Amino acid sequence: MMDQRSQRKQREVEARRDEILCAAERLFSKHGFFKTSMVEIAGAAQFAMGTVYRIFKSKEEIYISLMEAKSEELFQLLEEQMAQADTALEKIRAVIQVKLAFADRNRDFFRIYVSEWSGFEWTVKSAFGNRIWKCYLSQITLVADVVREGIRRGELQRVDPEAVSLAFHGMLNSTMYVWVLQSNPSESLESKGKILGNLFLNGIEKPIKKK
Amino acid sequence: MMDQRSQRKQREVEARRDEILCAAERLFSKHGFFKTSMVEIAGAAQFAMGTVYRIFKSKEEIYISLMEAKSEELFQLLEEQMAQADTALEKIRAVIQVKLAFADRNRDFFRIYVSEWSGFEWTVKSAFGNRIWKCYLSQITLVADVVREGIRRGELQRVDPEAVSLAFHGMLNSTMYVWVLQSNPSESLESKGKILGNLFLNGIEKPIKKK
Amino acid sequence: MMDQRSQRKQREVEARRDEILCAAERLFSKHGFFKTSMVEIAGAAQFAMGTVYRIFKSKEEIYISLMEAKSEELFQLLEEQMAQADTALEKIRAVIQVKLAFADRNRDFFRIYVSEWSGFEWTVKSAFGNRIWKCYLSQITLVADVVREGIRRGELQRVDPEAVSLAFHGMLNSTMYVWVLQSNPSESLESKGKILGNLFLNGIEKPIKKK
Amino acid sequence: MMDQRSQRKQREVEARRDEILCAAERLFSKHGFFKTSMVEIAGAAQFAMGTVYRIFKSKEEIYISLMEAKSEELFQLLEEQMAQADTALEKIRAVIQVKLAFADRNRDFFRIYVSEWSGFEWTVKSAFGNRIWKCYLSQITLVADVVREGIRRGELQRVDPEAVSLAFHGMLNSTMYVWVLQSNPSESLESKGKILGNLFLNGIEKPIKKK
DNA sequence: TATGAATGAGAGTTCATTCAT
DNA sequence: TATGAATGAACTCTCATTCAT
């Protein structure tokens, strides 16, 4: 009985969290962190200010929770899809597809994510900066591991896995950000993915000697 | 005589501009645009508030002027070095070297530049957003032209020049940002450049058929 | 229950409005609109700045609300007293008495009212200027109507009602302002009213022919 | 020789004073005292800020000098015209005509003059307030003297000269202000003067017994 | 527990006045 | 003497956070 009640409570709190994060996502995406006020967030989420502050201890906390939640979601999707791929090449192509599709479904989030990918505004407050940074780092590590494994299995050249993964994400993010900004993307998700996959795997140089 | 005096005036105004921009660069880099106040900028530049406002009409104007000035400087360096290179491959390697060296000399600026590369916080205010965006666009166009020429001359594969250039800059920026953040870069400038150059030109896949 | 609470809220907000207006009245009267700061108003009303801004959206809004509230109050007194008078002459004498008594009770307000009667500082910002102007216009129209009726009923000469009403208020205001400024009015309210009434009704010329 | 040079100096200073006052008049009339800046005044008068401050020690000084200069001019016109009139009635009509004509020629000044007739914004700083007040007082006294003389000579009723003069100017000013505000005055100067003259001399009541 | 009014420090910007040139 | 750049206090208004109800 007590259990049931506390479970309902739990679920309610979760639902509230989501509603607030959802409202914040839209607003941050539209106006940026600093030009979005707590009154706006509370209003959009249909809660009183006090209620918002009961769930999140500050505006920054909302921002970071938003990043963490979505990053976690994306990370799990990445892991799932990568588990189904065998070779490093397939895994890398999977990462591209998953991220592109995710960006397409979460355009508001992605505008924030890419913009703040460096965590620049947060670097001072290291406690917050670190949490944001981890969101990026987890993905970079994930791909770095794939690269490392690919090298070991002879599928990939002997490159620096971390450096290459970092560059890979920069490539992806810059492309996706511009793509997300366009309201009517002229080119499809697929073609973008193919371009990036080829670029990352084979580069742009023309293979000169193919006897 | 009149000329001399007005020239000195001119130089003094320039010097003031630079001092303010320099102070702003440091502060924006450390705290971000919104957490840096005009009082701080004025104080760091050793001027009274009114003096700062005599030279820049708003805080945004300082920010944008900073971006424009440094971007222009970087752009000219890029053009100079590219003019001395013959092939597309050489030009691309030149871009990487120049940007890395520039980032190394302008660490504060680069933290701002990469952080805000998407211009996200500015997109709302289109007048300002456009000016920021142009700073990035000029570089993307520059490299896209190199790629186009390289394809025409048979040096590069038939890729989408704009898409590839965008990805190239994302790759560079993400790498440089992390590199700039490290106070004691363990790896040298050269090696970073080599890694990125190889990645962009040849990708990471192991060339399978080499009979 | 809900009703009671919301009613109390309503009353509290009203009380706050009044306290702020009251403080502003005193300060505007003493230092004028531009030399009175919001900090001073908030301080005098014993509220934090934010509270003042919750109730009035700007300093101008306070000023205009003050004018409108008091003007409305005066206007209603005028209407009441005029309703009890039969002839135009009686009505005009009633207007004089009511305005003098009101000015006596609201010395601070009257200093502002008369000073700014022309709305000069406001004419530029038409939106605000109009609201101020209406405060004066309503009274001028009121008296103009009385004059018109008086003419119709043969009590008054065939004069231009609007022009005469305007002059009438100028006469009243100038007299009242000086009177209000004197801390210890040497002459009584009554005698001032009589003088103005006679002046407006009969002029100052000696009726020459009275056979 | 020395005399000539110092005389020229004197004349130059006078010319500067006039240019500044002229510029200030236009600007104060358009935007009000507080919304007109010294930079604007200096710019409009084609002088450097320092030069303006060499001639007037503050913005307030410009304002008051402006009032004093024009008031003095008006006062002399009034004295001249009144000297040519014999009876009190003629003198009063002369005052009306002169003021109306002066207002017509000095519309900018009159907007300021009437708006600030009460000196309200200045009352705090008594030193300044007094100087402004004297500008009004001189006219009131002038007319009060005429009224006193008129009573002595049996032309006017036994009224309070000061009170009546004050009311007279209030009447005039309110009428003139509205008239000055209208860009295309529909009614002529003459007719306005007649209305005010009749009102002041005979009132609006219909003389009842005229056998 | 939920509310949202109250808080007040702090923001960007202006401008009367000064003073080195 | 004339200049106009430099000054910095003071302005209006915002908003993240708190807390009495």
Protein model, in words:
- Four copies of one chain form a homotetramer.
- The first copy, chain A, is an all-alpha fold.
- The first copy, chain A, has two domains: 1-56, Homeodomain-like (Arc Repressor Mutant, subunit A); 63-202, Tetracycline Repressor, domain 2 (Orthogonal Bundle).
- Helices cover 75% and strands 0% of the residues of chain A.
- In chain A, α7 (126-152) packs across α8.
- The radius of gyration of chain A is 20 Å and the shape is elongated.
- The model of chain A has no long low-confidence stretch (mean pLDDT 87).
- Chains in contact: A-B, C-D.
- At the A-B interface, α6, α8 and α9 of A face α6, α8 and α9 of B.
- Chain C binds a DNA duplex (21 and 21 nucleotides) through residues 5, 9, 37-39, 42, 47-51, 53-54, 57-59.
What fraction of residues of chain A sit in β-strands?
A: under 5%
Give the beta-strand count of chain A: 0
CATH topology of the largest domain in chain A: Tetracycline Repressor, domain 2
CATH architecture of the largest domain in chain A: Orthogonal Bundle
Secondary-structure-based class of chain A equals mainly alpha
Overall number of structural domains of chain A: 2
State the helix count of chain A: 9
- The radius of gyration of chain A is 20 Å
Largest sheet of chain A at a glance? none
User: Globular, elongated, flat, extended or rod-shaped: what is the shape of chain A?
Assistant: elongated
Q: Based on the structure, what is the oligomeric state of the protein chains? A: homotetramer
Most extensive protein-chain contact, per-chain counts: A-B, 56 and 56 residues
CATH superfamily heading of the largest domain in chain A: Tetracycline Repressor, domain 2
CATH structural class of the largest domain in chain A: Mainly Alpha
Q: Kindly, what is the distance between the CA atoms of the first and last residues of chain A, rounded to a whole number of angstroms?
A: 77 Å
Helical residue percent band of chain A: over 70%
Weakly predicted, low-confidence segments of chain A: none
Write down the secondary-structure element order of chain A.
HHHHHHHHH
